[in-house]
Amino acid sequence: MKLTFLGLPGAGKGTQSAIVSEKLGIPTIATGRILREAISEGTEVGLEAKTFVESGLLVPDLIIIGILNERLAKSDCKNGFILDGVPRTVAQAVSLEADGILLDAVISLEISDDEILERMTGRRVCPNCGAVYHLRDNPSKMGHHCELCGHILAQRSDDLPETVKVRMEAYHEKTKPLKAFYSQRGLLRQIQANAPIAEVTKAIGDALGIKL
Ligand code: AP5
After folding, report:
1. Which atom of ligand 1 is nearest the CA belonging to 9?
2. Is 31 part of any domain?
């Protein structure tokens, strides 16, 4: 199974890709997470991407395509993978196809801008393992610590309301056109994402014809 998740920032791509990844036993490749790690390690890619990520703008396609190709070449991707937040532009999608990487389905998580702004203020993430929580809707059973690794949880620096607005604009301008791109290929599955997490997961399973 080769899947990708599309959707506004905070639509639930990371949350749902982690669930589907575990159920199917295939890795998730999240370019946002790879970029945040590169930034905190101060690598060349991190230095190039830093100002884009911190201001909520999309990182140039060439950087993303390089990261993605390097990750997809690893052996754990041979039985399938889930892409979280990539491709994010038509140019990235065209590059994937040109490299012979053909997706089986594209899940678009549908939610309004207003619902996103409310959701983002409550998000907490684990800087160590990447697990995602929400203060009200998906709290950690260990309070301010990660259930999976015990690390203290944090807010993402790009979750400030003004940066979230820039990220939403980037989605509407650059990423939303991918829905038409994948619809033409018969791959697009649109899922209402403003339901409880378990209901969204079930709807994704139904759309893929698998039990999740
Ligand atoms: P990235 O890390 O991909 O951020 P994003 O797309 O903006 O998405 P998020 O991670 O913010 O949200 P999500 O949809 O995963 O939601 P989540 O599951 O966390 O990218 C960051 C930056 O990197 C970009 O701005 C860009 O600069 C750069 N970048 C990355 N990829 C790129 C690319 N391909 N090209 C160019 N630039 C790129 O959920 C959000 C919150 O809601 C959580 O608290 C969660 O617990 C909660 N929640 C989830 N589902 C539900 C539900 N159903 N009900 C209630 N609460 C829920």
Report:
1. 7
2. no
For the segment 51-84, what is each residue's pLDDT rounded down to a tens digit?
Answer: 999 999 999 999 999 999 999 999 999 999 999 9
pTM assigned to the model? 0.94
Residues labelled catalytic: 13, 88, 123, 156, 167
The continuous run of DSSP H or E covering 108 comes out as strand 105-110
In the chain, the number of structural domains is 1
Decide if 100 is inside a domain.
yes
d(C-alpha 156, C-alpha 186), whole Å = 35
**Pocket mutation for ligand 1, best pick of 37, 58, 141, 199 (most atoms within 8 Å of C-beta):** 58
CATH code, domain with 168: 3.40.50.300
Nearest to 118 by CA among 36, 8, 6, 5: 8
Summarised one tens digit per residue, pLDDT across range 28-44 is 999 999 999 999 999 99
